[in-house]
What we know:
- The chain is of the alpha/beta class and 226 residues long.
- It has one domain (2-225): TIM Barrel, CATH 3.20.20.70.
- It has helices at 10-18, 29-34, 42-52, 66-77, 91-102, 115-124, 134-138, 143-155, 179-188, 197-204, 207-225; strands spanning 2-6, 22-26, 57-60, 83-88, 107-112, 128-131, 170-173, 192-195.
- Strand 5 (107-112), helix 6 (115-124) and strand 6 form a beta-alpha-beta unit.
Amino acid sequence: MKFFLDTADLREIEEAASWGALAGVTTNPSLYARIGGRLSGFPDHIKRICELVDGPVSAESVSLTRADIIRDGRELAALAENVVVKIPTMVEGLAATRVLANEGIAVNMTLCFTVPQAILAARAGARYISPFVGRFDDISEDGLGQLEDIVTAIGNYDFSQDTVKGEQVEVIAASIRSANHVAQAALMGADIATVPFDVLKKMVSHPLTERGLDAFMKDWEKVQNA
């Protein structure tokens, strides 16, 4: 499993990249707004993220019609070679994805919740599909179960003929709220988990690790004082 960071915060990206496990970044309008981003600074901000990350950086279109999404996609893709255009799963998004994929522009189809949506996204040429786990849980439905169904369904078929450069579609477990979400997504075979920085930090921690480290340090102190 690869790990993407779900953020627009440059400090979080720099820190996560220093750990050696960061394979990409996903952003969205909400994440950019959260750091106080402004429209005029958005292109340069995406460029900076792309410089920090040796991997795909998803930047989202904020348009609702296919013509406008295609325009956004072309503009975003022109910012850096590793930009992936993020497009919501909807009719206009599918049509735009097909056009952009035909032009060699990679697409991450987001806000995906069901197997039929995922299959349509793959057939439209999406390079990545992002099923949301936590938002399903928020309405008392089984987000992990839906993710597992999508992973299975996408794995049943070869969609490489539809994607940019003939690459296979990858499933990104999104809307991740806990380290357990990541563990379960990995066990079911999701290709990628995109996680907030707080969740990434929790993935490293465990009480037994901390207890063991504390014991080692106390014993070493005894050795030094002997």
